[in-house]
Amino acid sequence: MKHSDYSLIPTFVAVVEEKNYTKAAKRLGISQSAVSQGVTRLREIFKDALFIRGSHGVEPTQFALDIYPTLSNSVENIAYMLPEFKKFEPLRCKKEFVISTLSVFGYSILPELSAFMSREAPLASVKVEPLNNEDQTNMLRSQHYDLVIEVYSALTPQLNCKIIMQDTLCVMCRKDHPRITGDTLSTEEFLHERHVTLSQLDNKAGFLQGRGLKEERLLTKRDVAWKASSIMEMLPVIERNDYLALLPKKLVDQYINEHKLKQLEVNFLQEPIKVAIYWHSSRTNDPSHKWFREMICRAAQKYIAN
Fold first, then answer.
1. Ramachandran angles phi, psi of 23, nearest 5°
2. Are 131 and 191 members of one domain?
3. Nearest CA to 262 among 169, 168, 174, 180?
4. The model's pTM
């Protein structure tokens, strides 16, 4: 690779992320012809097609996806050395940060985050989108999302992550449940009853399934009667029916007095549930992104302390 060819790396990164020569050219402030010529030269250098034309633009080859993280990081690291990026001032930030997460965190971490944001970055805004089964790596790489807040698992090793809190699951039922009159529950009783679960778009199984929990097989045996769209929908549904539900203990402690529910002691499902934030490695050194990650960590700690 000649010294002059290194200037083509931002072109490669822009095309991967935009998947469109015109959009990449606009982003770089150059002509579409210059982008096309740059890609042609990159193909010669890497001995790979790099991009395949489709009906709506171009798609990177597997080789292009393999080298993208390293090249993207190099572009980001150079950019963040420039004077305008050296000092991030939250009070002047007008950025919209986008989070993809479960509704449960809208009643726990996110309210705390909103309080921090309103005080420390009053000009910034936050958009929260529901978590679904789409390719989270691609959505984070393309900066459609800034962060994903999710139950921790080892299923996405290609993403950076940080555990921000943990909780335990508890089994809940209504206080006047006709069959569960005590405060304890066996595995057999757990499977004998019908359940309420938290649904997830494009996922027929309950949300907790497929997260690597030790009790995975037990969860798959549940007879699910109701798949709720949000965690707060689950509480009144349990109150009005003879159903069971698994809920985060700390959240239950906040709302149990508002509903006629009781928590059941069990000798299973004792494994702590870890919550993590996920982001693409290309954003690690972005000053605004780093600050936003710190805000979410602070919000999680404040929620735990309350």
1. -65, -40
2. no
3. 174
4. 0.72
